[in-house]
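User: I've been going back and forth on whether these two constructs are worth ordering. Before I decide, could you fold them both?

Assistant: Sure. I'll take them in the order you sent them. The first construct and its structure tokens:
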Amino acid sequence: MSNKNFGFGTQIRKSPYFDSTVKWGATGFSVYNHMYIPRDFGDPEQNFWNLIETAILCDVAVERQVEITGPDAFKFIQLLTPRDLSKLSVGQCKYVLITNEEGGVLNDPVLLRLGENHFWLSLGDSDILLWAQGVAVNSGLDIKITEPDVSPLQLQGPKSAEIMIKLFGESIKDLKYYWFRELGLDGIPLIVSRTGWSSEFGYELFLRDGSKGNELYEKIMLAGKEFGLKPGHTSSIRRIEGGMLSYHADADIHTNPFELGLDRLINLDGDINFIGKEALKRIKTDGVKRLQVGLEIKCEKLSGPNTTFWPLMVDNNVIGKVTSAVYSPRLKKNIALAMVDIGYSKVGLDIDVSIEDKNYKCEVIEKPFFDPKKQITSKSL
């Protein structure tokens, strides 16, 4: 897809930034949450270096928001997630999991609390609007669930702070990691948060008026010119380096949080009530049968991310699959996230991987592969 006349029809929505992304060089798109998302601004390795050395601006309007309001909104949002939200303040974000009655992961959104009973779920790629509305029908709770006119942009990379100061002034320096505030930019209404799907320092700008999408995109690109800002797309290289999940690849409805090593997001001991609690208690008691691990794949440089799940084998027996793999030009090796049988999850273990009918060696290694303590994203200004 290399022009404006895409062939999917009106059922695939264009973002408010679509025309600007094409103008700034987007030549390829894929579909995420029933919308076009730019995936190609040229060499993905150059996009990676732009991200980690200066800054990139990414159209992530596909991160749709589920807005939950009403007198029982807090009680309802807690029903959706195993994470204890009792200390979630207005103006704060939290990374949460949405689980079903079997403990399966339906999504891993960022939750924003805009008011005492006003929440947004900023989604990965799955239909949580429908799930939430379905749960609400028989919940007996007084809530309203909608998809608001909200479309995020991500400004990510070490120069993003300087660009934001130019746009919003020195006070933006006080915005802490996983907090947000309401701001305006020349009459454009925004929520600005210190979050992003990149494992780099950065911000998300949630546009609250879709008619101003291209105007906002152009203002940011203009402000960022002196700092080397480039148009870009979410970097598979950097997010895999950071061990960040991509829903449908690294997790799905058949994956539970304990398999992902996300025990910290599950509160089973308190008196909070959420969907999947009893199932997750059983899973914890019984122990998981598989676990997500990091791998180094010892073959020639991968030409790009995997587009199928590569089988992992020990003595010709399949013991798991590679879910996300890429070559890291910074680490100078092929890295991957994989789901393996629990008996093969120990760091240092050698496993065979089958790639296009050829077998290669790989080794279980620690993940995340870079900046495991998140010192880059959480640093103070």
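The second construct, handled the same way:
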Amino acid sequence: MNFELTEEQQLIGQSAREFGKEFLDPIAVDLDHSGKFPKEIIEQLASYDFLGLLVPESQGGAGAGFVAYIQVVEALSRSCPAVASILNNHAMATHAIATWGSDAQKAEHVAALAKGSRLGAVAVYENGPTPGIGPDALVASRQGDKYVLNGTKAFVRNAGVADVYVVFATLDSSEKKEQTAFLVDARAGGLTVGPLLDTMGLKGCPVAHLLFSNVSVPASALLGAENGGSAIARTLLAVSSVAEAAQTVAIGKAAVRHAAEYAQQRVQFGKPIAVLQAIQTLLAEVATDSQLAWLGVLRAAQLIENGEPFEADAAMVKAFLARFGSKMLIDCCQVEGGFGFSEFMPLPRLFRDIAGTTLLDAPADYPDKIIADSIA
């Protein structure tokens, strides 16, 4: 497999890095404190065509491909992972419609989502009858030429700011309890956004439950086939996990860069601590972990772009970074000592954000079955 990037991919990545330095570096700390949705930044993302990277040119997007897309996610995450999370959830909703939508659904939504005149979100997780995540929390019933949805979707990113939701529900007539996907307009009657959740990190990317009370959608809102939503959800989560792995790598790179700069400036016994073997070992391990993880992300991204089986590779990078992501931050904090533990340094914010990129969409051990099943 060739890991050399094309000239176009390199230019897109460079553009995203420059975007991060110009627009995200100045706001990252304030956004972590305020948690306010950065509407103006999302509009800037749209002006750079970053919202439509995965959308084919024939549907009004940039048609840049998944390798270019994860480069943008990684570059933005070095500066502000929360903004990259907003982008990723939007991109997954757009990708779902562009891939599984009908011609009418594509014509109505995809170009608008790619250009940023609309924002998308995916609502896949559920609140069950007991606290936590449970099955059948959102149920859809067929009533003539429409479906009526009742229940809850949990932990929805971009909740309250999205214009259209890709929603997964269980049909009350489904014996196998397979999911069915729908497109739901944010203005639909009976749809309520719950209070925003005060998340640990990724501040600025709004997260809330969606409450459905007799929400009526036309049959034309069905995405794919009845009972076909589970397969769509599995693919979307696998694709999304590669982008989230890119976010985690970026946070590790940001942390090691800051720790290395600090080690050059911090002087003990007349010398920068960067010359100490223990410090060099910590920095070298973080740099190695992030570089090897990035190669795994690139491989998974190329498989996706080439239309080849990628689920096992996506699960591997997800599992690796779920276990080593926080370790990268801990090692960097060891380099910076008590100062690294202080809120006026970036590491506490990066700690909070990396918890979101590794755990928000799924527990750390979820990929293990996928990996085990792929072993011949």
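Notes on the second construct follow. The two ends are 21 Å apart (CA to CA). The beta strands are 120-123, 138-143, 146-157, 164-171, 179-185, 191-193, 207-218, 222-223, 267-268, 271-272.
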